[in-house]
Amino acid sequence: MPNFIVEKLDLYNFRNYASLEFHPSPGINFLTGENGSGKSNLIESLYSFCYSRSFRTFRDRDLITWGKDESRAALSGSGRDGRMDMSIVWRAGQDSKTLKHLLIGKSSCKRASEFVGRAPMVLFSPQDLEIVQGSPVYRRKFLDILATMLSPAHLADLSDYRQILMERNRLLSAEKPDPAQVAVWTEQLIGPGAGIIRRRLSAIKMIKEHVKGVSSRLESEKFSLAFKYLGSFPMPEDENDIENAFRKKLSETASEEKERMATLAGPHKDELLILLSGRPVRSFGSQGQQRMTSLILKLAEAELISGKTGTTPLLLLDDCLSELDEKRQKQLWGEVSLHGQVIITSGHPPPGWMKSEKMALFGVEGGSLKSLT
Ligand SMILES: Nc1ncnc2c1ncn2[C@@H]1O[C@H](COP(=O)(O)OP(=O)(O)O)[C@@H](O)[C@H]1O
Ligand SMILES: [Mg+2]
Predict the structure, then answer these.
(1) From the CA of 293, how far away is ligand 2's center (Å)?
(2) What is the mean pLDDT of the segment spanning 52-58?
(3) For 128-310, which CATH superfamily applies?
(4) pTM, whole model, 2 decimals?
């Protein structure tokens, strides 16, 4: 299977990088540097090419170097479809709005869904423990990233849904919302809402098999994870009926919605239960089991994306080693070293057992990068 390989990354006024030209090796790259040196910023810039947005912030303005008004990132790489050049420009606009331009080669993308999926990557960061331990938001985001990788149209539905939801909520918080107008927004909400739910369900179905394989490899058959999608309305047997079920729920909650001045059902309220031996791992799992679960989810994600895109994704491991004991670190390494291109960051130099001639070592310091090999 071909690997997706980043050959060059250029940054200009991105976070703490005034300018950077990074040529990673096609194998394993180990970036080490002190806290605050810019390791996660670099990972964030790379992952933006996969998902078209930051994994750390919703505010694009945060990405532009303080005091500047434009930021650029460019990536040259190769994958299943040959060579490719992609770039992103963030420009600070009026009223704290930030304009973002996504380009493939020289042509600009009208929608983010045209951009995503071309640079397959999987990101593993300490934040991922929140998928297991945190609020439902993190699990929805995990599913939405998966669903987007499987079908970029998901991103368009997500952004439409968010906008329509905002409008609908604005209307519901008016003194006397006009029912006819609410009904218009309700109908608008249902299409993208049902699309989001359908793709999430299919993402769960697809990741299940990979989770099974990875868990039995890393743990044992007994580490058996299961998933359950808890909708904010009863999920119909037939997925084609989701629209109707959603519509029915919104009509049932109409008076409560008026009282609470918000949309009370839909994919923004749904939850994914992750069960270990039948019990929610979030409340019943030990710290160790929860860590293991998040690691398994991410490795399964990498497998799923490989299978789906026919390309081994770039693996980004941001500061994950320090969270694991040595046994787990070695296990993770066993999986990672069989992978294609890997970029891994750490506050410490690589431990002795990890060193190999094939590993490229870089030092990060105050927004600059130098090769240490
Ligand atoms: N928009 C920005 N402009 C300039 N510097 C920034 C910006 N955003 C973050 N930083 C700097 O980046 C540093 C954090 O970098 P980060 O990559 O998270 O560090 P680490 O190496 O610990 O992962 C912060 O200390 C902050 O000073
Ligand atoms: Mg960091």
Answers:
(1) 22
(2) 90
(3) RecF/RecN/SMC, N-terminal domain (1.20.1050.90)
(4) 0.93
